[in-house]
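Hi Y.,

Following your request, here is the sequence exactly as I used it, all 532 residues.
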Amino acid sequence: MSEVHVKYFDTTLRDGTQGENISFSAEDKIRIARKLDSLGIHYIEGGWPGSNPKDMEFFERAKDEHFKNARIVAFGSTMRFGNTPESDPNIQALITAQTPAVSIFGKTWTLHVEQALGITGDQNLTLIHDSVQYLKSQGREVIYDAEHFFDGFKDNAEYAISTLLAARLAGADWIVLCDTNGGTLPHDIQSIVQNVIKKVDAPIGIHAHNDSEMAVANSVTAVQSGCRQVQGTINGYGERCGNANLCSIIPNLQIKLGFEGIKMENLAQLTTISHYVSELANLSHNNQLPYVGKSAFAHKGGIHVSAVIKNPVTYEHIEPELIGNGRRVLLSDLSGQSNIRFKAEELNLNLDEHNHVIPEIVKKLKQKEHEGFMYEAAEASLELLIKKITQDTADAFEFKGFRMLIEKNENEVIRSEATIRVNVNGISEHTAAESVGPVHALDQALRKALMKFFPEIDEMQLSDYKVRVLNEKDATKARVRVLIDSTCNGETWGTVGVSENIIEASWQALMESFSYYLINHYKHQPIVQESA
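Below is the corresponding structure, written out as tokens. Let me know if you'd prefer a different format.
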């Protein structure tokens, strides 16, 4: 199997953008194309040049790019009935794009031929043949996408095959079988692909959609059945339920089945590229994505963690480093001592001298989780919790109290005033600050109090603030969890607070954010001394 090569065809920049809430600028597309080329993708479909100016801009810019591995592909359809290739705007737009390869789709299913196009089967065969033949005469590599092929084959196998033969007779370099509606199951993919390979003397590809959540399985099955090109998108982005996810297909084919496609060392780029594309799409990365998701190699149960520490094979199907991911251990009310030890090592906390307090840490953690605290996204709060129990560090400041005043006057202007009291090295500070929002007022008041002692905190900024209602049934009396992300000089850390009072929960997270920064900034010297 190791000598069988597969070509990867990425359509993130075209089919992927048909997904809901996904849009890429021409610059975004260029940047993604560079990443895909670095990975070793063989074909990158950049868009439909006849459909919008943004795609034409991408193709213009792509001409000046040097791609080491990938061929840029322009996408379009067969010519319209009544046109010639020379007069058809879509075909001419493909020529204008000046890409080395083009991908055109044509109708395979008689339902679409007769009802969508309103022409005869023979007329459709002529559209396919003449479009492919013309593009080949212009020196293009032609990838013919047989739209709705599997549905068309089930309805009228003889006609569906005849459309493929028409494209191949005209010189198509690839024939790609499309499960456009995403409703075909793997056993049908296998039998139909094998049938096609017997009757069509051409390299065959697969293009699957995920409406039955079978796109990856169908793609892998198709390759096992003889397809040598597989199309998909990064993270499975695409219309409706999405396209086949190349981030799963590639490792499945190469790590699990031994097919060759891209260099094995390049697989370590997969996780980074997956996150990169989601970032440019302005979408949250799906933690549960196989292989590349944040949770793909995350372990929470104490028994699981204990086993993984001894031998990762016990609960991991591959080494996460192969695809650029990493092992994570989560802390929760399911945690055991193994979780604590592993997490402490991650945080560079040495618990060798504190074995006697590890059960106390586990007990405290489970109690806090029961109250609603969550430390998976608030590792700074977790580190402070461990250090407090092990008494490894002094507090940066002593909290004495705060008061919040929120006023709304008849002119519809709202004002929040925060007053706080803290002790630093035995010196009491009592300050106030005003803002529109109460959390910002607290932040400003605390900064004002601490700046006299720790001017460095002026460099620290709050970068994100999230509130989660934990028990919705209690309505306005519900307990809330506040997560705060803070940043300074490229470092980011998260803290958490929980209370029935949103201001108190925010204060907890805010105070720990400042404490974490100060403790780590002054970690080589004590901060707070005993009061006189």
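The radius of gyration is 30 Å.

Thanks again,
Q.
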